[in-house]
Amino acid sequence: MPPQYPQPLPRSPYNPVWNLVAIVILLWGVQMVNVGLFDGRLILNGIYPRQLDELQGILWAPFLHGNFGHLLANTFPIIILGGLVMLGKAEDFWVVTGLSALASGLGTWLIGAPNSIHIGASGVVFGYFGYLLLRGYFDRSAFAVTSSMLVIIFYGSFLWGVLPNQPGVSWEGHLFGFIGGGFSAWLLSKSAR
């Protein structure tokens, strides 16, 4: 009887791109439920700066959008920039997403305008932007530097979004999301070394 060798395990059908697809589906699902069942009132669960009893808004704000146009404006950058983040390691995607959302929310809660409410996934979008922009500096690999240069060429105008130049836009969320993404680039490149 010939010797039996262990059979290789079948390849997993899991593809990290499904993480990105799931996020987009979740965002659109929340918006449909918000409009269809709650008449848009879920946005009241956003971030209220410096109100201790409203700290949970930091968790909910990235999933809430004022209207479908607001959500659409965040969807394409999430897909494109989030996809570029995912080209690295799939685990890095979740670290960047989590740190960007947390930094964006906390920063907005700390310095946001009083008597305002902040919602939207743009803090995470700016986190992806900050991560991709600064990853080239921290990693110094050819791939990271090339992706940083492409991001600055195609999305460089995003830098204006971290300034208080548009009424009704949470520049605080953008700024701190960007900082969270930059911190992620530093943290992940340092741990890789």
From TrEMBL:
GO cellular component: membrane
Predominant subcellular localization, coarse grouping: membrane
Localization of this protein: Membrane
Domain Peptidase S54 rhomboid: 56-190
Record-annotated membrane-spanning stretches: 17-38, 58-81, 93-111, 117-134, 141-163, 169-188
A biological process term (GO) from this entry: proteolysis
Keyword flag Coiled coil: no
Superkingdom, taxonomy of origin: Bacteria
Protein name, entry field: Rhomboid family intramembrane serine protease
